[in-house]
Amino acid sequence: MKRFLVALILVISCFVLQTTVFQWISFGGIVPNILIILTSTYGFMRGDKTGLILGLFSGLLVDIFFGSFIGFNALLYMYIGYLNGKFHKVFYEEDIKLPIILFVCSDLLYGFLYYIIMFLLRGRFEFSFYFTNIILPELVYTILSSLLFYPLFLLLHKWLDKKDDRRGMRYV
């Protein structure tokens, strides 16, 4: 129950940060996708089911407030959380390379799928424009932000694991 509440608070906090605070420090209208960082982190730290569920809630929150229709972002975030969860067995807390690579892949996948569904299928074929002006700057900003947020999420994960270990409630 504690993990669920912490995850819920994190999703809401990251959503609020992404949509308010980071809007003020945006570069050319581009903000980092902190929900991708959170969904990916929970995926490879806790597994594919947890990543999928957290991705669902993150995406639904984005859809409810900013989406054209409900379910599109939820589906994208679910896939990202699930795919990152497949790397749970090779995740080591001391290694930063895997998380950074997964953040890059997740943000590229999100941007590419978003382009295909929202633009390409409507006959807008300016992929090079979309890639250089939207996907690439968001990717760079997200990676720089992950250097700040990932250690915080890792510290919180270790703290929750330590509490579970003390109570004998550790499960995988």
How would you describe this structure to a colleague?
- The chain has 172 residues and is an all-alpha fold.
- The chain has a single domain (2-166), classed as Arp2/3 complex 21 kDa subunit ARPC3.
- It has six helices and no strands.
- Helix 1 crosses helix 3.
- It is globular and about 55 Å long.
- The model has no long low-confidence stretch (mean pLDDT 91).
Quantity of strands, as a count: 0
Strand content: under 5%
The average pLDDT score comes to 91
Domain count: the total is: 1
CATH class: Mainly Alpha
The total count of helices amounts to 6
- The succession of helices and strands, N to C, reads HHHHHH
Task: Report the sheet with the most strands, covering strand number, pairing sense and barrel closure.
Answer: none
Task: Provide the CATH architecture.
Answer: Orthogonal Bundle
- In percent, how helical is the residue content? over 70%
Q: What multimeric state do the chains show?
A: single chain
Distance between the termini: 15 Å
- Principal-axis shape equals globular
Question: What radius of gyration results from the CA coordinates?
Answer: 16 Å
Give me the secondary-structure category. mainly alpha
CATH topology: Arp2/3 complex 21 kDa subunit ARPC3
Stretches where pLDDT is under 50 for at least 5 consecutive residues are: none
